Amino acid sequence: MTMFIPGSEIFSSRPIDPEELRRSLPTRLETHTVRSEKVDELDPLTYEVVRHRLWSVTDEMGEALKRMSGSPIVTDANDFDFAICDELGQEVQVGLYNTMLVGAVDLAIYWTLRHRAANPGIAEGDMFLCNDPWVGGGLHQNDVIVYQPVFHDGKLFAWTSAIAHQPDLGGVGLGSFSPAATDVFSESLPTPPVKVVRDGQLQRDVADLLFGQILAVSQSDLYLAAGTTAVAVVTTVLLNKELSLIGFDRDMALAMRYPVFLLDLVLLGLITLAIVVSLQAIGNILVLAMLVTPAATARLLTQRLATMQLLSAALGVAAGVIGLYISFWWNVASGGAVVLTTTAIFFAVFAAVELGPRMRQRA
User: Fold this and answer.
1) What CA–CA distance (Å, rounded) separates 47 from 294?
2) Mean pLDDT of the chain
3) How many CA atoms lie within 13 A of 159 on its CB side?
4) Nearest-angstrom CA–CA distance, 295 and 287
5) Greater confidence, 95 or 330?
6) Which residues neighbour 279 within 8 Å (Cβ) at sequence distance 6 or greater?
């Protein structure tokens, strides 16, 4: 049975009565309202003009994204969509692309209004990012939504949003899909709504947290990383036989009366330490990819566990150095550069080890 995590109940969004939601907002966040008399006065012709205008807006949003995107997921597969919502998040118009993606946009906005209106606040020029399917905005963690409030005469008038499937955001499997996953943390990290743009300016601290900035690593961070590495190496050497056994044959470990639960805690503790000390350099979205990809590459090159461990560490270091140079010369986020480098190494090794012999056999 899944263990309950205290505080996790906050990160869940459900439909809520609009007026109840409006009353719960802080007084400084004024919302646009329409009297029922105005609604009754709206003639059918004006209604159709407005409806088709909103329809054309979402069409233009789609064409703009397809022209700017370099991802075949957007340009060919149409795995994206848009939504225009009213001031309380109720959907007014959606795009006609992958309409399944916008089924929970309203839930993400409900949650944002309830948990972000007071702190950090919702103001003109802000944008929020989310990929937490429990909060809303997508079907799973690979669906990332960016949405922003629209103000008119100082009042919250509407919300616009764009959501698209991302090819890989980390996790234990390629493409962030893992049929063997036992919990949400085996796939890409779910990120609840976070303000990434404030007053029209990208939040640099948030961007560095998501995508990493190794140039901001301090000397104390290096000491912490070195200490964590030493602890991980010593623990792995001392418990190498036990950790290897529970990794490859858990039933055998239980039959031999190994303290499997305690060993699981040790392994999870080492993984947690590695993630915490890597956040500054890699970012919380990409750190899972760095945990998995070097090990997967080493697995292609050797069947010996000890060699695999050493080779995995060496590949991670090499990818870090090469990625740092790419980040410096091309002026891109260091975390993304390091992860792209280790991914490129994986595919190069995969092509040489797996595809090369098959192609020679066919020739």
Assistant:
1) 57
2) 83
3) 30
4) 13
5) 95
6) 209, 212, 287
Which of 181, 157, 178 has its CA nearest to residue 168? 178
Pairwise CA distance, residues 223 & 256, whole Å:
38
Pairing of strands 127-130, 143-152: antiparallel
pLDDT of amino acid 164:
92
Backbone angles phi, psi at 202, to 5 degrees: -65, 130
Q: Answer whether 92's CB lies under 8 Å from 173's CB.
A: no
Looking from the CA of 317 toward its CB, the CA atoms found within 13 Å total 8
Q: At what angle do helices 219-238 and 260-282 cross, to 10 degrees?
A: 150
Question: Does residue 214 register a pLDDT over 60?
Answer: no
Q: Across residues 156-180, what is the average pLDDT?
A: 82
Q: Choose the most confident range, by mean pLDDT, from 155-159, 303-307, 315-319, 326-330.
A: 155-159
| Cβ–Cβ < 8 Å for 320, 212 | no
C-alpha of 98 from chain center: 19
List the Cα angle 166/66/192 in 5-degree steps: 35
Average pLDDT over residues 105-111: 93
Closest CA to 122 of 155, 74, 82: 155
Residues whose CB is less than 8 angstroms from the CB of residue 176 and which lie 6 or more positions away in sequence, other chains included: 141, 142, 166, 168, 169, 170, 187, 188
Model pLDDT for residues 8-21, shown as the tens digit of each residue: 677 788 888 988 99
Name the pairing type of β-strands 155-165 and 143-152. antiparallel
Percent of the chain with pLDDT over 70: 88
74-83, 184-193, 215-224, 289-298: least confident range: 215-224
Return the domain boundaries, the chain: 16-202, 211-362
Taking every pair of C-alpha atoms in the chain, what is the biggest distance, in angstroms? 79
pLDDT of residue 1: 41
- Higher-scoring residue by pLDDT: 300, 210: 300
> Which amino acid makes up residue 295?
A
Q: In what order do the strands lie in the sheet with 155-165?
A: 91-94, 80-86, 155-165, 143-152, 127-130, 194-198, 201-202
